[in-house]
Structures are given as C-alpha cells and as structure tokens.
Design brief:
- It is a single chain.
- A five-stranded parallel beta sheet has the order 4-3-5-6-7, with helices on both faces. Strands 9-8-10-11-12 form a five-stranded parallel beta sheet, sandwiched between helices.
- It is 46% helix and 16% strand.
- The radius of gyration is 20 Å and the shape is globular.
- Helix 3 packs parallel to helix 7, helix 4 runs parallel beside helix 5 and helix 7 packs antiparallel against helix 8.
- The protein has 14 helices and twelve strands.
- By secondary structure, it is α/β, with parallel strands linked by helices.
- Helix 12 links the parallel strand 10 and strand 11.
- The site of 5-amino-5-deoxy-1-O-phosphono-D-mannitol has 17 residues, from helix 3 and helix 11.
Length: 365
C-alpha cells in the first residue's frame, strides 16, 4: 500500500522520521542517553584489533560512513570493500577479528560469498540486516537488525538511513567498550542521534525547493557529486540514486580529488551537487566548490545555516538543512540527495519503483 504517495519510494522516503526513531530505540536507551545493545556479542569490542566490512551498493556506502565513525570514536581500524571485490581478493584476515556484513535483503550473492569466506578464515561473523529470516541471518553469529519494515522500492532509502543509525550506535558502543569516549561524550553522541527524527522531518520539508532544482537536473547529461570525509559516501549515494532512477550519468568524487582530474569536466552545463553541512571539513569542501563555480559549474549546495552564511553569494542553489551535530550530519544529508533523485526521475517519468535493468535483490553475481 502506497498510502497517499505516488510511489513506494516516496512513501519510504517519508517514513524515515519514524523508521530512524524505531531503529534507534532498539540500540539506545533514550532516557539515559546511553547505548544499550540487546544482542549478545560473540566478540569483545575492547580487545578487537580490526573490523572488516563488506557489502554491495548502497549498503557499502553505509559501511564507508561507519569506517569514519568506528575509526574516530572507537579508534578501531576498519577495512571496507564492496563484496564483489573482497571475495575474490581473498585478503588475509587475523584470527579472531570481526567481519561485518551489511545487507537489506540478507540474500545478496556477493555479500553472502564474502561472509562465507570470512567464516572460513575464523572471523567472528556479524550482520546488519533488514530481513531476519534471510540466508545471511542463518549464517551469522550475531544479527543486528535495521527494523525499518519491508522496503519495496528497488532503490534503497529507509534501509540506508536505518543501517546508518544502527552503525552509529554500534560505533558509540565500541567507543565505550574501548574507553575511547567518556560517559559525557557517549551521552552527547547518543543525544545527537535522538535529534534526527525531528531534523529529518524538517529536511523533508525542502521538497518544494528540491522539485524546482529537479526540473533543471532532469535536463542534464552528467551530474557531479562532491563530498569530503563522512560526506563523501553520501555524495556516492546521491550519485547512485540519480543513476538508478533517472538514468542520468552521475559520479561522486571526494572534493579534494577534483583538481586531480575531474575538474576538466566542469563547464556551464554541468550541475555539481556539493554535500557540505558544517563540520571540521566544510571550509575545505567549500573552497573546492568555489573552484567549480569559477569554471561556470552550476552549484547545488547541501549545507546548513552555518554553511549558507559562509558561502555568501554566487551559489546557484542552497538547500539548507537544520543544524545537527556533525556525528549525525551524514544521516540527515541523505534526505536531500534521495529527494533530488526521486523528483528528477518522477519529473522525467521513469519507473521509479522498478528502474530498468535492476532487481531489488541481486542473488546472482
Ligand atoms: O539487499 P542488499 O542491501 O544486500 O542490496 C545491496 C545492493 O544491491 C543495493 O543497495 C542496491 O545498490 C540498491 N539498488 C541501491 O539503491
């Protein structure tokens, strides 16, 4: 049932204040602002030397954001790779390490093969899944649920933000166990997660402005997405969503890589979507953005009030998100990239819920 929405995807985008809140209530105790994992862990975060994450598509971008979080807050080294590469590389893995697999369906062939490889290497096997009855669930020692309900649209939306919410909570839990964050920091980080549902609702209200931008995006042949640090995987997610839904060619680059090649693509016809809510790296990204603007690129900046004040004039469009703690900013910044792809595609009249050539669950390699 699509409710009042034209597509399942729209319904799923709009469910996110509730789904994020629901996921969060599984992982944290909102009354004390502490993480509270319910799953019995077959490993100990305190003594872990390395975390290896494998996943495909959108789930792999959740893994990249998680790498920033685990490294920053838990000082835990993280390797993350798409499962289709990881499985054939056969990387050496230290006995007793932790391997984590992220999947909405729990059935993706490459991710499952990566899981089986890691199990064979004596790794602890953990999965973050939306389908508790899946093959990956059966083959994992511990399953962390995303709890966002069935996702019908082929393009992943609410599963991604649920994955991020769970991963953020796990990174805080790891930080607490490893003594790399204080009780005070734990409370601040958990509190910042609890601000998300309201902030996401506010971001969804950008829809009218997004529709205007989408009309123009629908005429583009190529679109560039830029982000730095934890915003880089959100740029990748934005580019993937646009490709999947509208069939417009889109690429994401880490903002600092721009001058190493891709800036050659920029001309007056090139929309460039810059994902830069205010954080420690925003100023760097904005200076890369000015280089694009100087070459005529049409900038669409996703930021917050602080970012908007910093850029001043000269940017074609600014989508202003509510200000949240930088820890949770990638989760919030996902909303406008989803809306941009959705509205560009629905404006073009493509089959949003069932894009050509794609399957919801990729069970063959
Ligand atoms: O079910 P999974 O999470 O394992 O699926 C992984 C990818 O196939 C999936 O995220 C795909 O990239 C989506 N179509 C993205 O919107």
């Amino acid at each position: 049932d699509k409710g009042n929405h034209r597509h399942f995807m729209a319904k799923e985008i709009y469910e996110q204040p509730e789904t994020v809140s629901h996921t969060l209530s599984h992982y944290v105790d909102m009354s004390s602002d502490k993480v509270a994992l319910r799953e019995a862990l077959p490993f100990d975060f305190a003594t872990l030397k390395r975390l290896t994450i494998s996943a495909c598509g959108t789930a792999s971008y959740a893994g990249i954001v998680a790498k920033y979080w685990f490294e920053r807050y838990a000082r835990l080294p993280v390797d993350v790779d798409v499962a289709s590469e990881f499985r054939y590389r056969e990387p050496p893995l230290e006995q007793g390490g932790l391997s984590l697999f992220i999947s909405q369906s729990g059935e993706t062939a490459d991710t499952l093969a990566a899981l089986r490889y890691c199990a064979g290497q004596g790794q602890h096997i953990a999965s973050l899944l939306n389908s508790p009855e899946s093959t990956m669930a059966r083959e994992s020692q511990v399953v962390f649920p995303t709890l966002c309900g069935p996702e019908i649209g082929v393009a992943s939306t609410k599963a991604f933000t649920a994955q991020l919410t769970a991963l953020a909570s796990l990174a805080v839990a790891a930080g607490v166990a490893r003594g790399t964050i204080s009780a005070q920091q734990e409370a601040e980080l958990v509190h910042s997660l609890t601000t998300l549902p309201t902030a996401i609702s506010a971001a969804l209200a950008l829809e009218g402005q997004v529709e205007d931008i989408a009309k123009r995006l629908s005429k583009a042949k190529d679109v560039l997405y830029l982000g730095r640090g934890q915003m880089y995987p959100i740029a990748m997610e934005g580019a993937l969503k646009l490709k999947e839904l509208s069939y417009i060619h889109a690429e994401a680059y880490p903002a600092g890589e721009l001058k190493h090649g891709p800036i050659a693509l920029v001309d007056e016809l090139m929309p460039v979507i810059v994902v830069a809510p205010s954080d420690e790296l925003m100023a760097k990204t904005l200076s890369n953005m000015q280089e694009v603007a100087a070459r005529g690129g049409k900038i669409i900046l996703i930021t917050d009030e602080v970012g908007k004040q910093t850029v001043g004039e000269g940017v074609a469009e600014v989508l202003v998100l509510p200000k949240v703690a930088s820890f949770v900013a990638p989760i919030l910044a996902t909303i406008p990239v989803q809306l941009l792809a959705y509205h560009t595609a629905s404006f073009m009249g493509t089959d949003v819920d069932q894009p050509r050539n794609l399957a919801k669950s990729v069970t063959v390699e």
